[in-house]
Design a protein that fits this description.
The complex is a heterodimer of chains A (493) and B (357). Chain A has 16 helices and 20 strands. Chain A folds into 2 domains: 236 residues, 3-Layer(aba) Sandwich (Rossmann fold), CATH 3.40.50.300; 203 residues, P-loop containing nucleotide triphosphate hydrolases (Rossmann fold), CATH 3.40.50.300. Chain A is α/β, with parallel strands linked by helices. Chain B is mainly α and 357 residues long. Chain B has a domain of 219 residues. In chain B, α2 runs antiparallel to α14. Classes of the chains: A alpha/beta (493), B mainly alpha (357). At the A-B interface, α10 of A face α9 and α10 of B.
């Protein structure tokens, strides 16, 4: 039996066809993955299913019956559909209990019956095995528990059909494993789960079926048992992907030092032509590293490229056009002849958008209209292109320093491939790259060296190209003997 | 005309054309609401709304004399409107235009008193230029205080500008009563400026300030859209964190913007002292700084809308004068009520959070 179905869904925003023939059939009691690149129409399809956006054409079916009249989140909620948003909808300083019941409080004569609420929640936690501390304020919880709160919230509202939007985007590997386990438990207790994601490894791990969207259309639905990561990514992108990996760097003692950052009792040395990776669970001192390097680079020289971790807050001015966002740092670039006036016309920017494959490549579009992956490409375009124009001064013979923080977070595989290849190319042409990431795969594919960060210091350095994932994972959690505290070339490897 | 509209194209904000029709409807609704509410208020006070609106209209536009008087009111509103609009672009809410225009007037009056004896042939242009520069500097200094507090001492500009308003007004009071007092009479006013520097009115009540204010307002809004400095101001206002990381000195930009905003407001003082009264009269401003806030909010950074908003509020201010004389039950306060209703109606119908007009 089908829990829900979308048939021939179409939805346009202005000229942009977000959905243009989406078919999606979700069988009851399964975990269904909806995958696709950023901008493929996943979010739109999901919003239509949940009633947040009305479709221009097509049918929505629930429990085999077509939805009549206006479909909105209230009706969806009444029909047992619950949505777990990518960005948590929690009131930080309030207790977990208050957050979970917010909007559906158990009241009599306007007075909350907290004991009954608590009992109901305890029962729910017992049934599902999802435990959270009910009295703690939400903002103090680790992200993994917050995401668990979001799931409990929809379950408390009697949802039988859960929609999860990029649920693992901000989770650590162990939290992710936890969440996937939770999803299996939910499925086994009769819930239906739709996961919107682009992390194919997780899809293979947890889903029963996957539907692939590309350019607003459904291209395929596959049983997980009969497919592979390679096939799914090929379907998503429409071509074979070649994930770039660095060439093995050998003569690294000859490379000149670009910058060094004291951290804990050791230091991180960034060398020209190399990518230095920092692995660590979030909150172990990544921010401190970023802060120190950025402070060292202030006032910001043109030879410093910075891809911040939070693109909306730190990198982009969302209501500004693509042109304006590309020019945000450029004025401070000595190699650009100082144009007195700011013009809306944008020849060089158009070329840059094309070069970095930002879609749609319309300079006059507001940055907020782009999908996450394309916003990230826009930032990479701005930062790396200004680096490319740095004159080769004697003090900086080959390019500058690049600080990339979670450069591919929330970005689809096609964009990941692209951003990775750009970072590698920049390193090859002489830039010193510091890559901070929570994705071990990414670090291992790109870095010449990986430092494991734990509680504010580097507990161990690992030399590429052949990494032992287990050892790095251990060092990230504080285990494993410190191999050496510094990665300066003087110290014996 | 076509060229003109192309010239003004830069005033339009990028993107957001999809909601145009919807927005038109919303605006129409807002204005209808405002008018209906105002009419209801008049009726509740026991006057015929039609009569009252007729009085307002006649008083503002009924004759050349009346219209020129309206234009006289429009002049300071253009300046304060542009001043507030400029600060808004940097994400700063300048409630202090009133204090800044008094600070500008103080400097202008002091300069006028100082140059009172200048009678040489070329003195007039020098006096006027000096007065304009000093009025701008006075307002800029007053704005810069709030800008400094905001940028480097993390004091919210809304609080500091409100407080500075009181300080500026008290300071002007003192100056009028003490060092600059006009010894020839008992009026609360400063000494008159040199005769040569008293710029005559070009048309009835209208002053030369109108074209000058139009130019200044246009220049300010043009600079925000079209210069790198303006780009930095807008970036700081739209996302201070990202702008700072991108290398823009956001704190300095905030200070600078507040200073420029205050300077533009300070020009109202120059207008008063050299183009209108030829002296500084106590409480000469009936709240031009606060009306400027309303004008800027209506204009949303668009020059044409700024002019229209200033005209609207100028007409309401002028029209209010005759309400006292020609009606029995409503006073000029009704005009203030109408202004407030218009703002409220537009705010209520401005649309969802995050949508821009």
């Amino acid at each position: 039996m089908n829990a829900a179905q979308l048939v021939g869904i179409a939805k346009s925003y202005g000229e942009v066809k977000a959905n243009d023939g989406v078919d999606l059939t979700i069988r009851a009691g399964t975990i269904h993955a909806l995958v696709g690149e950023n901008g493929a129409g996943k979010s739109t399809a999901m919003k239509i299913l949940f009633g947040m956006v009305p479709p221009d054409a097509g049918k929505i079916l629930f429990g085999g019956r077509e939805v009549q009249g206006r479909w909105d989140p209230h009706r969806a909620g009444a029909a047992g559909v619950g949505m777990v948003h990518q960005h948590f909808m929690l009131a930080g300083p309030e207790s977990v209990l208050d957050n979970l019941v917010l909007g559906v409080e158990d009241c009599r004569f306007g007075v909350r019956r907290r004991a009954r609420e608590r009992a109901a929640l305890e029962k729910l936690m017992g049934e599902t095995g999802l435990r959270v501390p009910l009295n703690a304020p939400v903002e103090g919880l680790p992200v993994g528990l917050q995401s668990r709160c979001e799931i409990l919230k929809v379950l408390y509202r009697k949802a039988r059909f859960l929609i999860l939007d990029e649920p693992t985007a901000v989770l650590t590997p162990s939290e992710t494993a936890d969440l996937l386990r939770t999803l299996r438990v939910l499925r086994d207790s009769g819930h239906t789960v739709l996961v919107v994601t682009h992390k194919l490894k997780e899809v293979m791990d947890v889903a029963d079926e996957a539907t692939v969207l590309r350019a607003g259309k459904t291209v395929a639905t596959r049983k997980i048992s009969g497919t592979s990561v390679e096939e799914l990514s090929e379907l998503m992108v429409g071509r074979r992907l070649v994930m770039p990996t660095r060439a093995s760097g050998s003569e690294r003692n000859a490379r000149s030092e670009r910058a060094s950052i004291p951290i804990g009792s050791g230091e991180i040395v960034i060398r020209a032509g190399e990518i230095t990776g920092i692995a660590g669970v979030e909150g172990n001192g990544q921010e401190e590293i970023v802060r120190r390097l950025v402070e060292r680079m202030a006032p910001r020289p043109a030879s410093f490229a910075f891809i911040p971790g939070d693109r909306h807050r730190e990198a982009l001015v969302l209501p500004f056009t693509l042109t304006e966002n590309l020019r945000l740092t450029r004025k401070f670039h000595p190699a650009v002849p100082g144009r007195r006036l700011f013009h809306a016309a944008s020849g060089p920017e158009r070329a840059l958008l094309a070069e970095y494959d930002v879609r749609p490549p319309k300079p006059e579009l507001a940055a907020e209209a782009l999908s996450g992956g394309n916003q990230q490409k826009l930032i990479v375009a701005r930062e790396l292109s200004s680096l490319a124009r740095v004159p080769r001064e004697p003090s900086h013979p080959q390019g500058g320093v690049i600080l990339a923080v979670h450069p591919t977070r929330g970005v689809d595989v096609g964009a990941i491939e692209f951003i990775h290849s750009r970072l590698l190319a920049a390193a090859e042409s002489g830039a010193g790259v510091l890559l901070i990431s929570s994705e071990l795969d990414e670090l291992m594919a790109l870095s010449h060296r990986i430092g494991a960060l734990y509680r504010g210091s580097i507990t161990a350095w690992f030399e590429g190209p052949d990494y032992d994932e287990r050892k790095i994972g251990l060092a990230m959690l504080g285990g494993g003997a410190a191999e050496k505290k510094s990665n300066s070339p003087e110290a014996p490897a | 005309m076509k060229n003109f509209s192309r010239m003004l194209k830069f005033m339009r904000k990028p993107g957001g054309h999809e909601h145009r029709t919807c927005e038109c409807k919303r605006k129409l609704l807002a204005w209808t609401l405002a008018l209906a509410a105002a009419a209801a208020a008049v009726a509740a006070a026991g006057e015929s709304p039609v009569t009252v609106f007729k009085i307002l209209w006649n008083s503002a536009f009924g004759s050349a004399e009346n219209f020129s008087y309206t234009l006289f009111y429009v002049t300071p509103m253009l300046l304060t409107g542009a001043a507030v609009a400029l600060a808004l672009e940097a994400g700063l809410f300048n409630i202090g235009a009133e204090g800044q225009l008094y600070a500008g007037a103080l400097m202008a009056a002091a300069w006028g008193a100082l140059t009172r004896g200048w009678t040489a042939a070329g003195a007039a242009p020098a006096i006027l230029a000096g007065g304009a520069v000093l009025a701008f500097a006075g307002g800029a200094f007053w704005g810069a205080i709030a800008g400094y507090l905001r940028a480097y001492r993390k004091t919210h500009e809304v609080i500091s500008t409100i407080m500075l308003n009181f300080v500026a007004m008290a300071l002007v009071n003192w100056v009028i009563l003490n060092p600059l007092k006009n010894p020839e009479n008992q009026n609360l006013e400063t000494v008159w400026v040199a005769e040569a520097a008293r710029v005559a009115r070009p048309w009835l009540q209208m002053t030369w300030g109108l074209p000058a204010a139009l130019l200044a307002a246009f220049g300010a809004l043009w600079a925000v859209r079209r210069t790198w400095l303006g780009f930095r101001i807008r970036a700081t206002g739209a996302n201070e964190t990202a702008a700072g990381i991108a290398g823009i000195a956001t704190l300095r930009t905030e200070l600078l913007t507040m200073a420029a905003s205050g300077g533009i407001a300070g020009l109202v003082g120059f207008h008063e002292v050299f183009l209108n009264s030829y002296r500084l009269i106590d409480s000469f401003s009936p709240g031009f700084g606060f009306t400027g806030l309303a004008v800027a909010l209506l204009a949303r950074g668009n020059f044409v809308k700024l002019v229209l908003a200033a005209l609207l509020f100028g007409a309401l201010s002028k029209g209010a004068l005759d309400l006292d004389l020609e009606t029995e039950r409503v006073t000029r306060d009704l005009s203030t009520v109408i202004q407030a209703i218009i703002l409220l109606a537009l705010a209520v119908t401005a649309g969802k959070k995050g949508e821009r007009g």
